[in-house]
Amino acid sequence: MERARPLPCGDRTIRNTASSESSPTTSDPGRRSSTARSLAALALGGALLLSACDSVSGIPGDDPAPAKALTTPPAAVPSAAPSTAATSTLPPPPADAPEVGAVPGVPEAATALRRWAADLESGTIAELQEKCWTMAPGNVADMYEDKQTILATIAQPGTATAKTVTWKGRSATVTVERGAIETGYACPRVFPAGTEIGPNDADARHTVRRYLARFVGEPLDPADKEGDYPLICKATPAEWDPNGTGSPTAPPLANNPGKLTGVTDFAGQQIFSDRIGSGYLTVEVPVTNSSGVTKTRTFTLAEGDEGYCIGDVSP
Length: 315
What we know:
By secondary structure, the protein is of the alpha+beta class. Among the domains are: 107-192, no CATH class; 201-314, Nuclear Transport Factor 2, Chain: A (Roll), CATH 3.10.450. It has 6 helices and 11 strands. The chain has helices spanning 108-122, 125-131, 137-143, 147-154, 178-182, 201-215, and strands spanning 15-16, 21-22, 158-160, 164-168, 172-177, 189-192, 263-266, 272-277, 280-289, 294-304, 307-314. The strands form 3 sheets. Strands 7, 8, 9, 10 and 11 form a 5-stranded antiparallel beta sheet that branches. A hairpin with a 3-residue loop joins β3 and β4 (164-168). Mean pLDDT is 81; it is low at 1-53, 55-69 and 84-88.
């Protein structure tokens, strides 16, 4: 099975009712079918036109053997206890790495961001997209373009809240989640000074892409597991209300995290997003099951302090 990989190009709005912009129609990758495991598989070629530049490539998947029971990949469901990131195994930042302003109360923040800053200064966007796989590749390309402005901003003292750490400069604001700092290598988000800080539609599409990649057995990174990098909205507190009824409930997917068990493939270049109300967004993507049937699934996501989470999948 081919491994998902980021596309080194900037993000483009795929579809958003607020902007009335849409991307060109893309062709679906050719599906592959497998015969008995003792026979060589014959690959069916198909041209793939890339349109969603915040995306990763499609992930062709082999149908499971008929006798094999369908199970939910461990990476796709919450674990009883998240594993602890082994930050102690990371090497210290290079001696000549860019300076990062200290953050009162969070001494490890500067070190985690400094590791990333060293790569920003000496590496390429493609390399940063590989390392910052939790972010949409298009966002990495767009946000990390102005290196000098970023380096000048993170040299300032930082401030911390319960969820994030932020560095502010004259031209930009750099922010990173506390959870990313705990891994020892912090990929930040960068915004022009004075603009609203928060996730965008590309983040929502990338969240769904990561979620489906786990189900087909090819997470974007081996470390991308639900126990360590949650993508499903939490059951409590019960705040799920995408229709604005005023009577929030628990997110349906929180009580059924294995709902998509049996998924073998998805069309990574045919992911569309629409905003449906304050704080909520839907993402549509063609998904193929173990019987070879493809249907468009609609994912509903909620915006939170740490980005988007998936609360429901239909039909």
